[in-house]
Write a structure and sequence with these properties.
Elements (H helix, E strand, L loop, with lengths): L8 H33 L13 H16 L7 H4 L19 H8 L15 H7 L5
Length: 135
């Protein structure tokens, strides 16, 4: 676990590896959910991008925002995003798992499970570093 790793070169190398992999992972995730919205609704919908307050997001935030703007995205309030008709779609999931709204809506449409294929996966070493088994 990172919290127990003593300060020094090894810890800094781990932090650098984490930071270098994080922005590409987040952008791949953005691409994935953009494609999911196209598949489900036939168009780009207003996406809600949830980011937790933590040191990694604080460091990566400027680069993430710049990269999304370079891709043509604009940032709007949650109220504005939720005006998109997609957010009035029926939901098809009852359970304890934390899944995206796009996945919930796909379940309501009874889409084949392969609609979820290709979602970027957090590398196992990141889970080990955090001391958890999964998301």
């Amino acid at each position: 676990m990172l919290e127990t790793e003593p300060p020094g070169a090894a810890r800094e190398a781990t932090l650098l590896r984490l930071r270098k992999g994080y922005v590409p992972y987040m952008l791949n995730t953005l691409d994935y959910f953009e494609a999911q919205s196209q598949r489900l609704f036939g168009r780009r919908i207003a996406q809600v991008w949830l980011m937790h307050a933590n040191a990694l997001n604080a460091v990566a935030f400027p680069e993430l925002i710049a990269a999304t703007r370079r891709r043509g995205y604009a940032f709007v309030s949650l109220d504005e995003a939720l005006r998109d008709p997609a957010y009035r779609h029926a939901e098809g999931y009852i359970g304890r798992g934390r899944i995206s709204w796009l996945h919930r809506w796909a379940m309501a449409e009874h889409t084949p499970k392969d609609v979820h294929a290709g979602e970027p996966v957090v590398p196992g070493w990141v889970f080990a570093l955090a001391g958890i088994d999964s998301e």
